């Protein structure tokens, strides 16, 4: 039943480009893109509570791979190469950082984004001698929309599978108490690395698919750290431990940020910061969880009267 | 047959030697008490056996194979399970999932329907029948201890390490707890039991090892060990010997 419902929703969403104008379609692409990022982020960070700020490092790597290779290789191969690059970087980063705890992990992932950006810039300036790049692909916005929709469906499917599977349980146990996890026979590093990599590959693909939208790509555009923060806020708002939580957080926040950046371009980042703080303090388990507990409280009160 | 063997096992924390040249053997099927005053190194010894802490010196062998350089998950897969002195529940999981976490990652994993039946049995064994769906963080301290034992048993251990599992129980619960451990012993599980409750030690352990300030000071039949002058001195101070 649930599966049929999801399928119907997917088909309905696939028809959006046939009637939506360019502006709503652009919003749709943004929502889907952030929905993918937030869902992928929460797949790893939800159960482990490892706050990663490396989202945009992978997103940007994906976009850059497309920018560099789109003229020499067929598009599907380019996507595949992007995924492989994302995987390799995720494995290296994962092995280096997943032993770090709490704040050290947060800071490292943040630093990583800057490092990747600097490396790409260095490479472009010194080796290829071009800083910006043009992406000319015969892909209209509707194609990007469809690809992102497919990626979102695949990401949600993957997240659903993880929740049902042993590896999902392992990750939750690790998140609760790594000492207990190891004493129960769970291979901690392998488990974390596997899910971190899956999550990062999805982020890389999200960047790769959206690359043609910009036409002109430059490190400061695709490695913008604000993206990483937005994704964290979205996932936290919706609730990172629910299947649809991050997606539901992404929809209103993306629209809100679009509006804010159009109307208050100067105060945008201050508002963003305040919102971040508010969400972490007021709704640590996300809006859905808060709504649920409110609901149970209300229905209990009703039962009493 | 010797199941567990410690040879000159030492643990140093900086300048403090918490366990000092500890040696003993456990035979398969034995229930042995590990006693000693506060801070004598009992928990540290268990931590080294389960792989939580690396040894500073010496070797630990399980069924003849050295395990002292293995990580906890490898040691768990060889059949060692434990409870913790301060209960370590998995608070965001349900009671059933706490047990499932052990079933799903042991050497011969159980998952799905088979796991559910086993969870129900294990919870019933420790007196938590029908509580699988409850969130773990809603349990009382005693029930958390029960759940932790069910989780340890779910790993199907050959060697079970219990760190003051009976502490804090009232007399009725203590009775039930002793019966429960007796039933484990009858299933052939080898048990190393750190305990301050002497009635329980007398009821459960045929043999006791006593530590003081990191060293072993006595090892033998329970009645003899508990009557030993040095043991009494270690526990109660010089005046009573
Ligand atoms: N991780 C650690 N780091 C530093 N010192 C430690 C550590 N763990 C234990 N110790 C010290 O080692 C000594 C032995 O502690 P341990 O916990 O093994 O004693 P115990 O016999 O279990 O005592 P109790 O009956 O109070 O549980 C103590 O002095 C303790 O402070
Ligand atoms: Mg202790």
Annotate the secondary structure layout.
The complex is a heterodimer of chains A (305) and B (241).
Chain A: H1 2-14, H2 16-19, H3 22-48, H4 55-69, H5 75-97, H6 102-128, E1 133-134, H7 141-164, H8 166-176, H9 178-183, H10 188-214, E2 216-217, H11 219-222, H12 225-238, H13 245-263, H14 268-282, H15 287-304
Antiparallel strand pairs in A: 1-2
Helix pairs in contact in A: 3-7, 3-10, 3-12, 3-13, 4-5, 4-6, 4-10, 5-10, 7-8, 7-10, 8-10, 12-13, 12-14
Chain B: E1 2-13, E2 16-27, E3 31-35, H1 42-50, E4 57-62, E5 65-66, H2 72-77, E6 80-82, H3 95-105, H4 113-125, H5 141-154, E7 159-163, H6 171-186, E8 190-194, H7 198-204, E9 207-212, E10 215-221, H8 222-227, H9 229-236
Parallel strand pairs in B: 3-8, 3-9, 6-7, 7-8
Antiparallel strand pairs in B: 1-2, 1-4, 4-5, 9-10
Magnesium ion (MG) is lined by residues 42-43, 85, 163 of chain B.
Question: Can you describe what's shown?
Answer:
The complex is a heterodimer of chains A (305) and B (241). Chain A has 305 residues and is mainly alpha-helical. Chain A has a single domain (2-304), classed as Orthogonal Bundle (ABC transporter involved in vitamin B12 uptake, BtuC). Chain A is 81% helix and 1% strand. In chain A, strands 1-2 form a two-stranded antiparallel sheet. The longest helix of chain A has 27 residues, at 22-48. In chain B, helix 6 (171-186) links the parallel strand 7 and strand 8 (190-194). With 241 residues, chain B is of the alpha/beta class. Helix content of chain B is 37%, strand content 26%. The model of chain B has no long low-confidence stretch (mean pLDDT 91). Chain B folds into two domains: 1-9 and 18-79 and 157-241, 3-Layer(aba) Sandwich (Rossmann fold), CATH 3.40.50.300; 91-154, no CATH class. The chains are: A mainly alpha (305), B alpha/beta (241). Chains A and B meet through helix 8 and helix 9 of A and helix 2 and helix 3 of B. Residues 13, 16, 18, 36, 38-44, 85 of chain B line the site of adenosine-5'-triphosphate.
């Amino acid at each position: 039943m649930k599966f049929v419902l999801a399928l119907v929703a997917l088909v309905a969403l696939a028809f959006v480009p046939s009637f939506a104008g360019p502006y709503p379609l652009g919003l749709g692409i943004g929502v889907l893109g952030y929905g993918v990022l937030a869902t992928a982020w929460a797949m790893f960070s939800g159960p482990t509570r490892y706050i990663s700020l490396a989202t945009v490092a992978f997103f940007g790597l994906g976009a850059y791979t497309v920018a560099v290779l789109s003229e020499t290789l067929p598009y599907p191969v380019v996507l595949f190469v992007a995924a492989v690059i994302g995987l390799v970087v995720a494995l290296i980063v994962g092995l280096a950082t997943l032993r770090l705890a709490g704040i050290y992990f947060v800071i490292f992932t943040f630093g990583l984004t800057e490092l990747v950006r600097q490396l790409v810039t260095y490479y472009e300036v010194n080796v290829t001698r071009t800083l910006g790049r043009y992406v000319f692909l015969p892909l209209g916005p509707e194609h990007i929309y469809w690809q992102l929709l497919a990626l979102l469906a695949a990401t949600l499917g993957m997240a659903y599978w993880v929740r049902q599977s042993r590896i999902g349980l392992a990750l939750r146990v690790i998140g609760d108490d790594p000492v207990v996890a190891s004493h129960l026979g769970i291979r901690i590093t392998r488990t974390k690395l596997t899910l971190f990599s899956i999550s990062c590959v999805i982020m890389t693909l999200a960047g790769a698919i959206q690359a043609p939208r910009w036409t002109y790509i430059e490190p400061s555009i695709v490695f913008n750290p604000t993206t990483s923060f937005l994704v964290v806020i979205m996932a936290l708002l919706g609730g990172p431990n629910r299947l649809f939580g991050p997606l539901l957080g992404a929809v209103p926040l993306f629209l809100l940020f679009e509006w804010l950046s159009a109307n208050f371009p100067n105060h945008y980042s201050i508002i963003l910061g305040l919102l971040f703080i508010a969400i972490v303090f007021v709704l640590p388990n996300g809006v859905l969880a808060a709504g649920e507990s409110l609901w149970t409280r209300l229905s209990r009160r009703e039962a009493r009267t | 047959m010797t199941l567990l063997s410690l040879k000159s096992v030492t643990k140093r924390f900086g300048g403090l030697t918490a366990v000092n040249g500890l040696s003993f053997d456990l035979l398969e099927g034995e229930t042995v008490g590990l006693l000693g005053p506060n801070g004598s190194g009992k928990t540290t010894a268990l931590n080294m056996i389960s792989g939580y802490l690396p040894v500073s010196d010496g070797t630990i062998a399980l069924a003849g194979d050295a395990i002292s350089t293995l990580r906890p998950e490898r040691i768990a897969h060889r059949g060692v399970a434990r409870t913790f002195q301060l209960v370590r529940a998995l608070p965001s999981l349900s009671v059933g999932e706490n047990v499932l976490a052990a079933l799903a990652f042991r050497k011969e994993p159980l998952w799905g329907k088979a796991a559910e039946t086993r969870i129900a049995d294990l919870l019933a064994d420790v007196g938590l029948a029908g509580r699988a769906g409850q969130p773990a963080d809603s349990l009382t301290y005693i029930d958390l201890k029960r759940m932790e034992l069910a989780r340890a048993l779910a790993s199907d251990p050959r060697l079970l390490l219990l760190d003051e599992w009976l502490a804090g129980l009232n007399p009725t619960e203590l009775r039930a707890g002793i019966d429960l451990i007796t039933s484990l012993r009858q299933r052939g599980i080898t048990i190393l039991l750190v305990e301050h409750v002497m009635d329980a030690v007398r009821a459960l352990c045929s043999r006791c090892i006593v530590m003081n300030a990191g060293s072993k000071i006595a090892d033998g039949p329970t009645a003899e060990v508990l009557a030993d002058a040095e043991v009494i001195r270690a526990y109660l101070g010089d005046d009573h010997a």
